[in-house]
Amino acid sequence: MKEIKKGFSVRAILCVGLLLSSIPGICLAVSATVEGSVTDNSGEAVAGALVTLFSEDDLYSETVYTNLSGYYKITTNLTGKLHLRFRSPMFSDHRGDVVIDDGMILKNNISLSTPNSQHEISESFPANAYFSKLKFKDNDERAGFIMRCIGCHQIGSEITRRERSKTEWNSLIQVMLDRIDVHDENLQKRYVELLSEAFDNSPVSGVAKPVVTSDILETHIREWKLPESLIGHDMIAHSDGKYYTVDMGADKIYITNPVTNTTETVTIPDQGIELGGKIKYSHAAKRAIFALTLHHGPHSLQEGPDGKIYTTDVVSARIGVFDPVSRQFSGYELPDGVVYPHTPRFDRLGTLWLTIGMSNQLGRIIPRTGEIKIIDLPENDVTYPYGIDINPKDGSVWYTQFTGNRIGRLDPKSLEVEEFEVNFTGPRRLRFDADGMLWIAGFSSGLLVKLNPVSMQFTEYVIPAPSPGKFETPYAVYVHPKTQDIWVTANISDHLYKFNSSEEQFIAYPLPTRGSYMRDLVLTQDGSLCGTSSPIPASASEGGMQSLICLAPNGFQSHP
User: Fold this and answer.
1) What is the average per-residue pLDDT within 348-353?
2) Would you tell me how many other CB atoms lie within 10 Å of the CB of residue 560?
3) Rounded to whole angstroms, how far apart are CA atoms 62 and 74?
4) Which range has the worst mean pLDDT, 91-95, 300-304, 468-472, 489-493?
5) Which of 143, 344, 373, 476 could form a disulfide bond with 520, CB atoms 3.0-4.6 angstroms apart?
6) What is the mean pLDDT of residues 57-75?
7) Residue 274 CB-density burial (10 A; 0-12 exposed, 13-18 middle, 19+ buried)
């Protein structure tokens, strides 16, 4: 590193002070600080650079942005031998080792170098810069491609943009389409043409430098790698202060302690469920080939009013129940014919509602009585109920038909259902705000959409990608309960977005890990927005591991 000034430790001073005080023998851990400035080769400040401090094993990291003057400051409880990385688009990464003691203040100024070639500069850009090279005939063709090809990982990332022959692309695309049960020779040929022409190892042009605003400068990002995770689809921040992630590909639950930065693995017992569960006997067996080696396949989860964790298990067609205190497992058997329990949501009465994707149903479970009710949804040419949320104004249950481009409303008392067509494609996950407005992620249309359920008026907002002409694929939304800001996961640019609905303004937050793919967001006790990054396969993510990411927009207060 260009300049590293030796730090000093205040731990000894504080220990002496405590020994002389009325609390003898106690020595509190003191946070360390790493700070400095980031410039380019000419000495100009680099604003908005991501400065990341990694643990020695790279399994935990903390990230801040440089301010408009290029200054950064990380306050951390990490000590020992660590790694420090500096990253900004259009510059080469700079990574080195540092050694930190409790209470140390480490000064570290860095000058980032500009790569020697346009190709190397392109390597610093997110996947959607490369995705823009695909020459679609129209928006409909682009939307169809996104629905079929970006549901598991980015397209345009380092692992997907490698130059391949048409023969290699044909084999790869055939495997991918087979997995979603699509058999169309002309479509396959078209995708071979698109991808082979776009990903030819040529550099990307027309990418603008990121616009850095003061809104993001207090942000602190934490990331915990999940080395065992195969499909760590969703997570929750439990009331016990820990984070619980379900692994649909391994029948496991990962319990992350954000104070100790440790993750415990709990294997879900088979509970008498055979390998492949119920799904292997269903029409969805071919689309869920991963299920043949599993008993449960937990997809999503929610904390119930009783503190237990309720999971939607796609393989066994059950609602799993995990007690984090006793570590005991139980569950609810869903009726025959239920295929792919998907997203759960509790209402204010403690009733659990869920979408059931591959059999076009909703489910209702009342845990206090054990009552289970399955509601069939209207039949259409294309159906796949996906996201779900409860209207805070009247308790009605709203859901998306992801592939059918519709949304639906269920009356919780009469169980009557009505569906509505939408004018955008790929309505995925959705959330209500406190005023009863429904916010929807338009995955394949690049939109954040607001629906007024009373007037049924839709308002569409195009999510502004970091560079002109680029595209976003919003997967999930979350409404902050206090600020009412709308947070959006955008899974092709390594960004999260915050939308201020009163000012109708988007704010972009770059993420430190390339290939990030976040499927949902939750709020933690310390005010962070968190979710798993779970591209499939895990190798599609930088470092080859899935992870848990938490972004604190107003800064993270480290634990003593």
Assistant:
1) 98
2) 9
3) 8
4) 468-472
5) 476
6) 97
7) exposed
Name beta bridge partners: 396: none
Give the length of the chain.
560
State how far the Cα of 76 lies from the Cα of 242, in Å rounded to an integer.
Answer: 19
Contacts of 117 (CB under 8 A, 6+ apart): 203
Q: What is the largest CA-CA distance in the chain?
A: 81
Closest among 328, 318, 305, 327 to 354, alpha carbons compared: 318
Place of tokens 């302690």: 257
> Domain spans of the chain?
3-114, 120-198, 268-376
Q: How far apart are CA 243 and CA 322, in angstroms?
A: 14
Assess whether the previous peptide bond of 324 is cis (omega < 30° from 0): no
CB 257 within 8 A of CB 242: yes
Q: What is the pLDDT of residues 351-394, one digit of tens each?
A: 999 999 999 999 999 999 999 999 999 998 889 999 999 999 99
Does 268-376 carry CATH code 2.130.10.10? Answer: yes
User: DSSP state, 208?
Assistant: P
Q: Residues 6 or more apart from 346 whose CB is under 8 A from it?
A: 302, 304, 305, 310, 352, 353
Residue 217 has pLDDT above 80, yes or no: yes
Q: How far apart are CA 104 and CA 9, in angstroms?
A: 4
Q: How far apart are CA 3 and CA 1, in angstroms?
A: 6
Lowest mean pLDDT among 4-18, 43-57, 220-234, 383-397: 4-18
Superfamily of domain 3-114 in CATH is Immunoglobulins (2.60.40.10)
Q: What percent of the chain has pLDDT over 90?
A: 85
- For residues 519 and 93, what is the distance between their CA atoms, to the nearest angstrom? 27
CB of 390 closer than 8 Å to CB of 438: no
For residue 559, pLDDT over 70 is answered with: no
Cβ neighbourhood burial of 227 (10 Å; 0-12, 13-18, 19+): middle
Closest to 448 measured CA to CA, from 481, 422, 469:
422
Look at residue 467 in the predicted model and tell me its pLDDT.
64
- Identify the pLDDT of residue 557: 57
Q: Residues 194-214: pLDDT tens digits?
A: 999 999 999 997 776 777 888
